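Task 17 of the worksheet. Students: predict the tertiary structure of the chain below and write it out as structure tokens. Keep your answer in the requested format; marks are given for formatting as well as content.
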Amino acid sequence: MILILVLAAAWQQYVSYAISADLDTERKFLNCIEYVTYHNNSPSPLDTIYFHLYPNAFRDDNTTFAREMKKISFSTIMDVPVRDRSFIDIYGITANDESLSCLINETIMAVALSGTLMPGDSLTMRIDCGVKIPRITSRMGYRKDHFEMSQWYPKPCVYDQAGWHNDPYHALGEFYGEYGQFDVSIELPGNYVIAVTGERVDSADVEFTRSLIRDDIKPPSAGRKTVRFSAENVHDFAWVCDPDFHVEQTMVGDISIDVFFTAKDRKKWKNASTYAVDAVQRYERWFGPYPYKTLSIVDGYASSGGGMEYPQLVIIGLDEDPITRVFEQAIAHEIGHQWFYGVIGNNETDEAWLDEGFTTYVEMRYFEDKYGEQGSLLKSPFLPPLTEPYYQRLFYYLTQTNGLEKPVLTPSYEFTELPLAYVNAAYAKPGLMLKNLEGMLGRPMFDSIMRTYYGQYAYKHPSSADFIAVCESVSQQDLQPFFHGFLNTTEFCDWYIKSVSGGTVEIVNRGDVPVPVDVFIETELGGQIYHVDGHDKTMIIDCAPAKKVKRVHIDPYGYALETNYYNNYYPRRIEIKPILALPSFDAYQIFYCPYLWYSDDNGFTPGLYLAGAEFIDFDFVKGRHQWIAGLIYGTKSRRFYPNFSYQTPVIFKKGLRSRIFAQYSNSHNEDKIKGGFMTNLGIPFSTQRSIAIENNLAYYRLNSFDFVDSLDWDLGENMILDNSVKVIAKDLSVVVSLSLTDRSVNGDYTYAKAFLEVSTIKSVPIPVQARLFCGKIFGTAPRQEQFFLAGKLRISQLADLVFSQEGYLSPQEHVHITGDGNMNGYQTQHIKTSELYCIGLELPRNIPFRLFGDYGIYRDQTAGDGSLRDAYDAGLKIAIGPVSVNFPFLYKDLATSQPHWTIDWSIGF
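Model answer:
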């Protein structure tokens, strides 16, 4: 009786397809006739069958996909012209010569059966439909003559023990489909090359095909061809076609690995076959055989990311570059999905970790096995190694420290407003968790688990509970607390060294996830590994007969998934590294950077910069005790120029990050001392509004004009209270600033300085950035604190190390510092004012080559009456990241009030 109940509970539906499709490359349209046979293996009678109609997701801005995408990135389907959107029209559905009625709700179609489909019975339905192919959106569409056809046919929703999974097409997460067999015929232009799920066959080769559909296929018209493919034990069918495809075939045993690439990408794809072979051979050895005859690697667009997987077919939207191994990473990851998604078909909406987390572990192991433990995603030996585990730990670190985590078993669509948390929950954290499990159990046992899981659940729909059961069965261990903590909660593990006394070490787990860990302890008698089972939160390790502990290292093999590795060492770990080293997750680092520059005002200026931090501290990135110290020597002035800065968080939690900071520098003969608070409000990596607040007290003293342009500076000292608020919401940025000083507080000036800056980017009809600036000074301010028409005067960060404050390459000459009036057509004219109103436009904002134009009104301080004057300019900007080269070609001559055509330039920061 028990055996009967177990078999009844193990049922799974089955689907057979026979599809005839006709691709119209001119109209971007696909006409289809689909015969789908639905096998009801469940114990329940069915009177309705639900289908996915995925192309409807891209119809308009009202779909679930469009609404969720707007939350993620503000993009809308309405930004795409109507001719480039998508839909699927159902022309008719019949079964047993009867018409069936259907009800369509966006991407879900409910087909009402004329009778009841009893357990053990099957039903064949004919569905006539037409698909409008979109410009590539998410995972489907065309670009020029290239077509990527995924999720293109009416596809039955999964019906399992939990009922119907009739989820709409979501912006995050992927798919869930019934296993079955496909016989697909596609008519397309004769010059097209096609890559598909399945193998190409002749008409007589497919026994399971219903003869019905053969009668529906008409001979192709002139210049066209019909190709036919079959696939068995797959839960999806995708294809890509392009008239420019070239194919390179490589055999791995009986598997044909076919790489499809375009002529223009031949060189960039020359290693694709090698990477595919390397991946398949490893995965077969580690997990089990690839069960199909073919595997296609396709040069495509994969607009959902760097790559996308389908049974027997992966689309890679990247090319090989000379610096990174991201192309190889994408191939290794997507091929891993052939095992964990393809052969094992979990629910990618509700339990995405079972495919994405597994393939994250797979790609980590691939790189370690091929390139060693320090195998880098960067090719250059001159760059610090960026390993796969480091890359994944970064996602976990950012998510966990910012309080953004959701449990791994959260459905994918619940991450819409926090995409980073989805990357962590689906990819990074579970991949690292599997690496942790491997370290706990040992690789031989872990591999036995993976092979058992793969063999037991091939062509099935396992859940997290099924995988955990396999782990416990093979290992003969109770792993429920480990998995529950990492999958169902946002709790964590954090072993730390609480105390070292004589020959004993006390370690404590600050978190609530019980994880075993190894501890290396070195005493005067030598070193030894102690294993802590993790059941108790506090462990005291007695190293007797040793009397003195010299060194302790928790997790010496580096497999534990923890939130804080800095406290895993006694004594604390300190590294001294060159400036290019990556920030460490477990050591306090001190970076060094020799400095040498030449300037006209001070000759050669050698120096040394040092920086220290626990990780790195900036806005949403949490570090601790970050400092920078530098000392430069001017060979002309024969003076040293020191500078120092320090900051550390005092509050760092979800939605609120506050830091204290202090700075001192002496450059260009100006002493600067500043200290205060920086506060950031808002959820990083989300579409929510963010606010940055800075309050500081600054002291400035200029002693001489030796290294500054006397046109723009006044001698003296100021004690200034600076306050600024910056608000970013969608495509709008607003900055409000108020500075106050009074000569009664150790200064030479009394004034109040206020400004408002508003920037926005709009896409109507091309991306354009607009900027409004309004500023006014009440009282008398030194020249260096006034508003400058051409852009800010004070240099900061990198520019301060390279450029001086006087001469040919200085602000107001040929160095443009973004801010104030920002009218760089007036570089070289040194126009400053106590009152300024400007508006500027820059377009198109999304490419390096841009046109700019500005209009401003300022108070002319050279005129006796202080009257208001206007100015305008226009020019060309070439922008690469934060650096630009500006070429003004027109400005208003302020002496003649006439347009002045010119050719000038400046370097912008």
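Marker's comment: The longest strand covers residues 639-653. The two ends are 77 Å apart (CA to CA).
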